[in-house]
Task: inverse folding
């Protein structure tokens, strides 16, 4: 709906404009016919003026709508539109001339009706030309507008609108008030005509074109003005259409702006290449800082860099040498020079001062750039700029020119800026890629963490003789602590706790191996010492040379109320005896798994036996608990751990676990995290 | 921080460790011991200024046990404080490595045994 409405405005205004022109023609011819036949046609002059004003406004609305609808066609296209309108109007005027030339001195040539018809035709097209050009000037004047210019233009439009009605008050042309009004319009036109900001944005070629178009507009304006004036001098006009302050004012404005534009464009021609150059540099700069997208190579930036440097200094040949520190430098982006000549030139530079000193590998890093003249057959000056990223030299840019002293300070400055920007871009690109990679590693670690969590048991076996609780925390994403239970019969259980040397990913892998060993060997119903000997044998083949695993393996029989256990280098079990209400560590010899990788191992394993009674508590833990350090670098230690149990024997296993952890945190200070994995497993015997 | 000093005395080498051995510097300790491997060498490791040793540090000693045996190297650790000694003891390494309280005992072990 909206669009249709807009389409119609153009057509309606066009139609109304044509109809108004036709009625204007009809009214005026009727009046002329009446005057010729001494009859009063009864049409007052005001009627003509109103039609004329309607015609002006309709043409304005039509072009205004036309320009708004077509968007921004660019400066040259707009000017060309005005030029073509001008040529058309001039064409009509010329055809009229030619027609009268053909008529010669025949009667028809003196016919006032025919002459008036052509007068109306020329008036119509001149109006169209003036109004359309004025709107184009508006577009140019308001380019990069500010508030002041917009206000000035609006005032100008108001003055022009008022000037249309001037004829109602003053039919006497060229009296004082008429001249004053015209003068006002012209002054305003001159003030507005200093707004020529669009001209610098034209390229050299576009400037030539616009000079051509503008001169056509100036000539058209002049010619149309001449035609109109000639008609006015013709005394058989029934009513003066063109002795109008609006028309004359527009003539002045159109001519003044065209002349200003013409002259300014002409004088801007010699400096236009400088402006173009600066504009290219700005655009290149922007391209350099934006060009690398994640995943793309830095070569693209270097490509833009080369183009930018070459255009900034009007270079005749250039190339980029990457990684000159290595023995086989890699040449990329070679421009306007053949391999053979480049190698020769490079050799030439290396042998001659000042380049010789800098290209020497030992002090090549220190310089910002070197420029100087060379005594080569084809090239007379050269500039070498290193591209540095994080103080390491990525490569050298070689620029050579056929003229002597081809590189001035401004060129070198802008090239240095380009190189700096390119370095930043490449560096950012590298950092970004690293960040993406790190992000991926983080994701992988999260997966590892999930997998490892699943290696720790979700459920610990027990029966109504004892309660059990456990917890394990890793210092890094993954850890090397391990515990698990296994139930043989209603009364018989196997329990293991272990700690893999080291921490992080390598420890996590070894822990997974340990889990495999446990589940294989637990099936064999071995005694604790046999279990450890076999586990040592198995792990000796899997663990790296300097890795070991400490563990304690327990067999629990609730029908006999007995525990059999063997220790393989693991932290001694903490045991609370309910009868005596004392806590102690169960001391026993034992060697860590993987330390002695031969049959000698079994000599170092002891098997222990104890019988428990109701209320006894067994605390199994890893060294992360006792080795947790506070800010004074003091360890939590065995003494503190023992005290926690000694003072809290009435708690249930879960509470004991939490009590131990809170005591450790209290000791090390709430804020600091433990720097090792830690695990606790607590069993309390109920009957 | 770990500082490793090696000095030769008549017939034996003294390896002095000062500070803490953890995962970050266990490689240095490894390199130091690796450099001392010569058949029939006598090595005294002075750990009196050693404040802490992590499982990675223990792993270094552990990994040389076999090499010491095949090269008939005598390796004695002296001067460990009770905390560090306890770490060796719990793992059972004190059963495989000779640990003495002072240098006199170590020399006795090296030259009279």
Result:
């Amino acid at each position: 709906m909206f669009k249709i409405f807009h389409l119609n405005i153009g057509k309606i205004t066009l139609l109304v404009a044509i109809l108004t022109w036709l009625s204007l023609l009809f009214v005026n011819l009727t009046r002329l016919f009446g005057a010729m036949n001494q009859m009063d046609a009864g049409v007052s002059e005001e009627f003509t003026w109103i039609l004329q004003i309607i015609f002006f406004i309709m043409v304005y609305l039509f072009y205004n709508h036309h320009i708004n609808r077509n968007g921004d066609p660019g400066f040259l296209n707009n000017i060309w539109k005005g030029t073509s309108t001008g040529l058309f109007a001039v064409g009509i005027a010329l055809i009229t001339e030619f027609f009268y030339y053909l008529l010669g001195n025949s009667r028809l040539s003196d016919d006032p009706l025919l002459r008036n018809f052509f007068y109306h035709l020329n008036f119509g097209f001149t109006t169209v030309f003036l109004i359309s050009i004025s709107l184009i000037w508006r577009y140019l004047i308001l380019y990069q507008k500010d508030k002041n210019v917009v206000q000035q233009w609006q005032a100008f439009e108001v003055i022009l609108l008022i000037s249309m009605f001037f004829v109602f008050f003053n039919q006497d042309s060229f009296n004082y008030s008429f001249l004053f009004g015209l003068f006002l319009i012209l002054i305003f036109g001159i003030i507005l005509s200093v707004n020529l900001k669009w001209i610098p944005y034209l390229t050299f070629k576009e400037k030539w074109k616009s000079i051509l178009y503008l001169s056509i507009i100036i000539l058209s304006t002049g010619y149309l003005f001449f035609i109109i004036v000639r008609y006015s001098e013709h005394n058989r006009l029934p009513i003066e259409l063109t002795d109008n302050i609006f028309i004359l004012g527009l003539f002045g404005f159109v001519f003044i702006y065209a002349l200003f534009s013409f002259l300014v464009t002409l004088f801007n021609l010699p400096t236009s290449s400088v402006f173009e150059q600066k504009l290219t540099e700005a655009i290149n700069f922007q391209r350099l800082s934006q060009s690398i997208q994640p995943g793309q190579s830095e070569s693209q930036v270097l490509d833009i860099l080369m183009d930018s440097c070459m255009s900034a200094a009007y270079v005749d040949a250039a190339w980029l040498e990457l990684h000159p520190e290595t023995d086989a430098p890699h040449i990329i982006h070679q421009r306007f020079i053949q391999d053979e000549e480049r190698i020769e030139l490079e050799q030439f530079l290396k042998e001659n001062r000042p380049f010789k000193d800098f290209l020497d590998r030992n002090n090549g890093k220190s310089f910002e750039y070197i420029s100087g003249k060379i005594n080569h057959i084809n090239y007379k000056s050269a500039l070498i700029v290193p591209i540095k990223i994080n103080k390491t030299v990525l490569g050298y840019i070689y620029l050579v020119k056929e003229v002597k002293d081809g590189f001035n300070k401004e060129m070198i400055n802008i090239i240095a800026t380009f190189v700096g920007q390119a370095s930043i871009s490449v560096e950012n690109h590298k950092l970004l890629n690293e960040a993406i990679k790190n992000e991926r590693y983080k994701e992988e670690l999260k997966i590892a963490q999930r997998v490892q969590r699943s290696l720790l048991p979700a459920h610990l076996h027990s029966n109504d003789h004892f309660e059990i609780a456990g917890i394990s925390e890793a210092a890094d994403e993954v850890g090397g602590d391990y515990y698990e239970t296994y139930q043989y019969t209603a009364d018989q259980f196997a329990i293991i706790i272990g700690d893999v040397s080291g921490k992080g990913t390598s420890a996590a892998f070894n822990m997974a191996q340990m889990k495999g060993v446990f589940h294989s060997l637990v099936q064999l119903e071995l005694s604790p010492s046999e279990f450890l000997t076999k586990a040592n044998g198995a792990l000796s083949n899997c663990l790296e040379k300097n890795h070991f695993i400490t563990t304690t393996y327990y067999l629990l029989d609730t029908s006999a109320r007995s525990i059999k256990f063997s220790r393989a280098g693991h932290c001694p079990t903490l045991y609370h005896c309910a009868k005596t209400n004392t806590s102690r560590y169960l001391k026993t010899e034992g060697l860590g798994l993987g330390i002695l990788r031969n049959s000698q191992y079994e000599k170092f394993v002891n098997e222990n036996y104890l019988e428990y009674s109701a209320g006894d508590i067994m605390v199994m833990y890893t060294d992360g608990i006792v080795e947790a350090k506070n800010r004074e670098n003091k360890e939590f230690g065995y003494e503190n751990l023992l005290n926690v149990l000694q003072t809290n024997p009435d708690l249930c296993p879960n509470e004991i676990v939490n009590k131990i952890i809170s005591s450790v945190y209290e000791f090390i200070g709430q804020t600091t995290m433990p720097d090792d994995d830690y695990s606790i497993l607590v069993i309390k015997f109920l009957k | 921080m770990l500082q490793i000093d090696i000095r030769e005395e008549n017939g034996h080498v003294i390896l002095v460790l000062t500070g803490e051995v953890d995962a970050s510097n266990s490689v240095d300790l490894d390199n130091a011991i690796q450099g001392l491997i010569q058949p029939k060498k006598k090595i005294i490791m002075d750990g009196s200024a050693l404040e802490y040793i992590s499982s990675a540090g223990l792993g270094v000693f552990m990994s040389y046990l076999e090499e010491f045996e095949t090269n008939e190297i005598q390796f004695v650790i002296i001067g460990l404080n009770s905390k560090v000694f306890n770490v060796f003891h719990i793992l059972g390494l004190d059963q495989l490595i000779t640990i003495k309280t002072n240098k006199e005992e170590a020399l006795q072990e090296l030259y009279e045994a």
Observations:
- Chain A has three domains: 76-274, 298-433, 456-685.
